[in-house]
């Protein structure tokens, strides 16, 4: 997992784990280090800001949600709901094709 962006609310840090992946070793082979893992299900890690260990983290599967940049986030319902506004590369495999075409 590589972290490109994250966001935070008053109570939580929100970490996207996307289908878009980075493998720097591909540069050695003359390929783009950015790729797409089609088998992976995108998810969001919701971590209390003052968590004492990883057991307080929650990972929520979010199929098709590949946020390139988070814009804003906030808590609702007394902190029981976290709202995230982000730019989504919904079809990550199409994003990869565009990047490959631009590198030619």
TrEMBL record:
Similarity field: Belongs to the carotenoid oxygenase family.
Which cofactors must be present for this protein to function?
Fe(2+)
Cofactor: binding comment: Binds 1 Fe(2+) ion per subunit.
What are the protein's GO molecular function terms?
carotenoid dioxygenase activity; metal ion binding
Lineage at the top is: Eukaryota, Viridiplantae, Streptophyta, Embryophyta, Tracheophyta
- Entry keyword Lyase: no
- Metal-binding in keyword set: yes
The species this protein was found in: Salvia splendens (Scarlet sage)
Q: Which InterPro entries match?
A: Carotenoid_Oase (IPR004294)
**Protein name, UniProt field:** 9-cis-epoxycarotenoid dioxygenase
The alphabetical list of record keywords is: Dioxygenase, Iron, Metal-binding, Oxidoreductase
Q: Which GO terms describe its biological process?
A: carotene catabolic process
Task: Check the record and name the PANTHER family matching this protein.
Answer: BETA-CAROTENE DIOXYGENASE, CAROTENOID CLEAVAGE DIOXYGENASE 4, CHLOROPLASTIC-RELATED
- What are the record's GO terms for cellular component? chloroplast stroma
Q: Where does Fe cation bind?
A: 4, 69
């Amino acid at each position: 997992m590589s972290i490109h962006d994250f966001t935070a609310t008053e109570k939580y840090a929100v970490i996207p784990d996307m289908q878009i992946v980075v493998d720097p070793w591909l540069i050695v082979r003359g390929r783009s280090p950015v790729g797409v893992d089609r088998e992976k299900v995108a998810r969001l890690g919701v971590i209390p800001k003052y968590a004492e260990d990883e057991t307080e983290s929650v990972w929520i599967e979010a199929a098709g949600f590949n946020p390139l940049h988070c814009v804003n986030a906030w808590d609702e319902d007394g902190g029981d709901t976290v709202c995230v506004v982000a730019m989504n590369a919904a079809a990550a495999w199409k994003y990869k094709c565009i990047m490959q075409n631009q590198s030619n």
